[in-house]
Amino acid sequence: MAAKMKVIEGSMAVAEAVKACRPAVVSAYPITPQTHIVEDISQMIADGEMQNCEYVRTESEFGAASMIQGAEAAGARSFSATSSQGAVLMYEVLFSIAGMRLPCVIAMANRSVSSPLSIWNDHQDAISARDNGWIQLWAEDSQEAADMIIQAYRIGEDHRVLLPVMVNLDGFIITHTYEPVELYDQKMVDEFLPPYSPVYALDPKNPVTMGSLAQPEVYTEARYMIHQAQLKAKEVIEEVALEFKKKFGRYGGGLIDAYRMEDAEVALIAMGSIIGTMKDAVDEMRAEGMPVGVVKVRSYRPFPAEALRAALKDVKCACVIDRDISMGMEGALFTDLKAALYGKSKADILGFIAGMGGRDITIDDFKGMARKGFARIRGEKVTDMEWCKLDTDILPEGS
Amino acid sequence: MAAKEKLTIGLVAKPGGTLGYKTGGWRTFRAVIDHEKCIGCKRCADSCPDGAPYECAHDGKKKKFCVDYDYCKGCGICAFECPVDAIEMMKEEK
């Protein structure tokens, strides 16, 4: 049976995917721009479309994260969604969920973090949650965000992995945009995603202790096991993406995806919804004869070091665009890419901080970045890291 | 050498594992319950973060509480909570 195509909001596409995954528990606390996702799910439950799903309104995001932690510990598939300040309030629990190896799935509608207060999109919320053990996947558009939810459960619940997965989708740009999205045939999703079978679950008949104290003799080993599971997830993410393609006919990439990278001398590298604009910029530059392509990082954790080395093997200059900054250093993806290529690639690497707090990044901006890459190849003086469109006129004296 | 116990994913453990961690050695003050004053209300046991007070000294009529010094860290919450001031925090002599 052919799935139906429908013009819906990105949040609704994610909610439809969640419904098709048959979670037993959904916890919710509202925060812009995530709220529509859990609102849509709440409506589906009220309409009787999601049988056997408990919808729990919590007192905070700390509670929302704790609720899915408890549900997964009891062996129930769960879901929640958050953004920005809400995600920050979840951080303590996010570490704990990963440490207890509970394959929760959260949709993160990416938004800037206060202060100054901004409700608009950038990637700082998820990037600041980089080291807590969660797998981080990044969607390019509504369809991919929805498809990623289904893949996320398969990846996280795989017994070779057993880690929580954060599906990142750009706030407003994806969550609030109406696009044609292919929806799901329940039978196909059921075939693709079997019910969750936990290795350990809380059960009064067979009691266990979860999340208890680890003495110095075992803590290192516990952290090592999480790291190994992240590395193992690299294979699983690729496998699941290919299997999804076979079943549903759609492929947004595995760990990464490449666009017009054949003979490319300059590559634009980024995560999230800006990939679409970058592809348009590349099309225009290719029409002018410029050898430039796009590499989309789809999995940020685990970091696809080998895949990026292979994709950038013949590239002379890689331009990394970050919608975040590690204060006092540089963009997070920029740092990671350099680490992955160090000693193993001759490519030059430039970093750009762009699109913070909802500032638009246009086709011309990307073309400008790529031109800087070509200028670097020609040996012209180009700074290693640049703040794109920084308005120096409004900065106070001495900044 | 005995074979080391293998870790489980997420360090899932058998229940009651913390009984093996005897934390009494952390103590500077020891909670001592005066059984002349103790009315057996159980508030010390309910308020103890380590479950150290336990029911003891049944004489058929009255119940009393004692402290398990393997686990009492000497925090003094029980002495603060005791409604009849039956618990004294005594300096631990090393």
CATH fold field value of chain B: Alpha-Beta Plaits
Could you tell me which chain pair has the largest interface and how many residues each side has? A-B, 19 and 13 residues
Mean pLDDT of chain B equals 91
Q: What's the CATH architecture name of chain B?
A: 2-Layer Sandwich
Largest sheet features of chain A: 7 strands, mixed
CATH class of chain B: Alpha Beta
Structure description:
The complex is a heterodimer of chains A (399) and B (94). Chain A has 399 residues and is α/β, with parallel strands linked by helices. Chain A has helices spanning 10-20, 35-46, 61-73, 84-99, 124-127, 142-157, 186-192, 216-248, 274-287, 305-311, 332-341, 363-377, and strands spanning 5-9, 25-28, 54-57, 78-82, 105-110, 135-138, 165-170, 178-182, 256-259, 266-270, 292-297, 299-301, 317-322, 348-353, 385-387. The mean pLDDT of chain A is 97. Chain A has two domains: 4-248, 3-Layer(aba) Sandwich (Rossmann fold), CATH 3.40.50; 256-387, Rossmann fold, CATH 3.40.50.920. Chain B has one domain (23-91): Alpha-Beta Plaits (2-Layer Sandwich), CATH 3.30.70. Chain A binds chain B through residues 99-102, 162, 199-200, 207-214, 218, 221-222, 225, and chain B through 7-18, 21. Chain B: Heterotetramer of one alpha, one beta, one delta and one gamma chain. Chain B: It comes from Methanocella conradii (strain DSM 24694 / JCM 17849 / CGMCC 1.5162 / HZ254).
